[in-house]
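hey so u asked for the seq, here:
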Amino acid sequence: MQTVDAMGKACPTPVIMTRKALRDNDVVVTRVSEVIATENISKMAAQLGYKCSVEQKGDHEWAVTVEKQDVKSANACRMAINECSVTGDDEQHIEPAAINNIRLSDGYIVVLNSDEVGRGDSTLGKQLAKSFVSSLTEQDVLPEYILMYNSGVKLAINDADTLEDLQDLEKMGVKIMECGICVNFFDIKDQLGVGSITNMFQITELMRSAQRVVKPS
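ran it, structure tokens below
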């Protein structure tokens, strides 16, 4: 059993920390300080077919226990969930073993055209960008490419809080490319810590021929 301290961490960080711990442990207890975190971890456990229980330890502290089940039990659990849920044709159900079965998807591209996600508060937007990139590292299906242009190239510099996650994605086989014009505009070529420089023609071609493009906005 492993205990994960996610106290004070905003979602999806507690979910990501729990998933990482489940790679090498059959039972994980995650300490969180927000109700929403207990709900999100519980949903993840249900998707994976794992047992989950929540115990309140204090006014702002909960312990979420996630326990792996054998494949037979997990399949039965997942079937029960699916039968009770109304789902669309495109909805994916994660297999219990998928947490250790990461793969790349040809024709799947992620586009980051800003160092912020959403409109409104800039600080929140940067936090959401960090959360988005971090969440990518824990997906069972990874993009073939991550393309960056405009201020999105700033996510790849050495002091960016997204750098480590992008480096992990690159190690897993994701091709990361930054727009050269944008890199020069922001004068950050010597600060890049991941990926390679490309041009807008190649970015356009890759997006045009992609089967699926995901772009947070």
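The first strand starts at residue 2 and ends at 5. The first helix runs from residue 13 to 22.
lmk if thats what u needed
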